[in-house]
Target: Regulator of G-protein signaling 7
Amino acid sequence: MIIIVYFQMDALIQEMQNATTGVPIKCQKTFLSTIPSVFTGFDVVNWLKKRLNIDENDSNEAAHIANLLCKFGYFFPVYESKVIVVKEDTSLYRFQCPYYWPSQAVEPNNVAYAIHLAKRSMRNKQKHGLEDYEQTALTKLQKMLCDKWKFICDQAQEQVSLAKERRRTDKAILDSQERAFWKVHRPPPGQTKYVEDGPKRNFQPSQMAARKRKNRDLLQKEVIHWRNAINRCRMKTSTAIESYLSRLEQFEDNDPFIAGVQPSNPWITEDTTYFDMNSDTIEIPTEQRIKKWSVSFHELLSDPIGLQEFENFLKKEYSQENIRFWAACEQLKFCPVSDIPSRVERIYEEFLTSGSSHEVNIDSKTMESVQINRKSAKPSRFTFEAAKEHIYTLMKKDSYPRFLRSDHYKTLLSNALTPFSKKK
Model:
């Protein structure tokens, strides 16, 4: 409804600006200067009477419509006035730039208003000086937008520099239009604001979820939402295809459907040798399986045999407490809720207590984060997350490369199982 009303106002203003049938626009000469592109309040009221077929004796209705158009920002008084009103006399008015019309939905946000006020404060105080309420608003905005104030000052300075390149007449018209726009959207104290900004949020989005009651219907909607989210594409198709191709090239030798199955295919025959050779309990892993550990540190730790061999290697280097601490934190994530407090204390005493036999080496900042989480009212599964990430990064950058270069890894490769035949 509001948009339709704005469009009707736009159409009426466009008729008023018509060069032949609209309101007569002229240049008003004064004693020392000329005021360009203005019209009188008497002319606009008379034009509205003729256009809307209003009785000549009833000028109040035409004056009321003219006042509404003025208060909505379609035209404005040339001379500064705290009260936006149309007088049926020789008072001068000027049409507003279409960019500032309400139908264009220009957002009058605080940053734009701060740039406008800062720009005026940089210019001639006599012509562009701020009024008391504007100076108060500028002070408040400076505190509110302190993190953006340098950007605001730079923008204001840039606009002042551009204004110096314009002609004097154009500069005066643009300045008056901008000031009129802000007088409509940021009126002086005691004045009514006629343009609506739309609904505003009275609370933060994080508070919205807390206000909802967790009933059965809401939980069912959440389940449906997350199921749909699983299948929703989160990246460009071309990027996803490139990622799949890269992974295919990297793991091609380990994919039984592409590289073939050794020694026989259990999906076709009844021979289960392939599953037996790649089980988690086998003593000697296959060569392909050991080579897969060199692809990434994640692949090594994801394989139970790889994790055990990496721990055996760290024993020789007297740093096995790192992998044991990481494994204990992983087990903490999936343990029963009732066991969390006891496991947290056990992990802390074994790995983080000063002087313990398996103490891990972490920095003071990480230790402080662990202490805060541990002393909370209810310890969580992620109490040691910061320390775990620190140890994981340390092993990935230091221990893992040395493991791949070590004699231990080379011995595993030389003694690895190699299937005697290859059948697809």
Notes: Residues 363 and 390 are 9 Å apart (CA to CA). The beta strands are 26-29, 34-40, 75-77, 92-95.
